[in-house]
Amino acid sequence: MLDDKLIATAREIADRLIARKETVGVSESSAGGLVSAALLAIPGASAYYLGGGVIYTRQARRGLLQVADQWLTGIRSSSEPYAAVKARTIRARLGSTWGLAETGAAGPTGNSYGDKAGHSCLAVAGPLTRVMTLETGSNDRVANMRAFTQAALDLFRDTLKAAG
Q1: Would you say residue 161 has pLDDT above 90?
Q2: What CATH number does residue 65 fall under?
Q3: Which range marks the domain in which residue 99 is found?
Q4: Three-state DSSP state, 38
Q5: How far is CA 80 from CA 11, 111, 135, 160, in A?
């Protein structure tokens, strides 16, 4: 499911991270591992990619990220604040320079929080922090997974550029 555009963006990210001797950890959900796959498709990934997980359920959030329910009081899944928590947490758990997170509803239906298919919230945490929401307007699950991945990589690349 990786395409040339995803690989090209991942290569830009890899080049910057390697040059700066920085690292990243990834916590994704509806992208289904494609963010990690794109970053790992670049030769030399072990220099910058510390690890990641598909945090798709509450059980995964509790077990893998070790984020307790009480830490999310007033925060719902598939939101910018939740993506920010995931990005900060994966960064802290792995000791990486950067944390990159995605959470959303790939489709073909929406999620139990009222978001329509094609909704994704993305976050980068590190020397700079950024969050954004993407609405594709599509219920095509695979196309949304690719769009979420491209948006996450674009956000990360642009944040790295802004950080110097």
Answers
A1: yes
A2: 3.90.950.20
A3: 4-162
A4: helix
A5: 26, 15, 13, 19
